Write the structure tokens for this entry.
Amino acid sequence: MGEQMRLQGKTALVTGGASGFGAGIAKKFAAEGARVMVADLNLAEAKTIAAKIGGAAQLCDVSHADSVEEMKVEALKTFGSLDILVNNAGATHLPMALEDVGLEDFEKVFGVNVKSVYLTAKAFIPHFKSNRAGVVLNVASTGGVSPRPRLTWYNASKGWMITATKGMAVELAPFGIRVNAINPVAGETPLLKSFMGEDTPEMRRKFLSTIPIGRFSTPEDMGNAACFLCSDEASMITGVAMEVDGGRCI
């Protein structure tokens, strides 16, 4: 008999699951026995990842209520019940002086990083409450703990996400629902270039010099951390925002 897989028999939904950290989380969850729905704005990429892991794909704009509601209906139709919700979809603005960030960019960051957590909670928390079980994982950022300059509104959105995680955790614990966050440092994802402003060897060196372990976060790092926090091994852990950052926040 092989070792029991950590998420055997569980169902999971990962937003922004078509690339970067989200894809890493979706792949790890599937490898550990979960059935996964990969939700993303990019349906073609979501289908590619879903096909690789034997999961389902769903088009979703997490900043729009109707789209999130549709995702809920599809997830419950596909799985019957949902055990794990991962709010991974994220957006940033380019590094610039805080007063120069345009309203459209600010609203995109707010919609994808803040409003989405509210919308997915409205969609799925009643389901989790009726099951008296469920796990929510929010993918925040080291920027929400130790902000870098010129990414102020992005950092603020992730700080909001961390506070929301803790608030949700204390409110939902009596219903058997756990809520945690992970804080990655910049990683090899589609957002890396946006954080740095330009992807040059000099810029990479500058970024890496702030990470004691000396490398970027990888999708695998996030998958491993997410898998633990969403598994029954972490049944006593709720309300944490776990840094997966190679020591960046120390």
In short: The chain has one domain: 11-243. Helices lie at 20-31, 43-53, 65-79, 103-131, 152-172, 192-196, 201-208, 219-230. The longest helix spans residues 103-131.
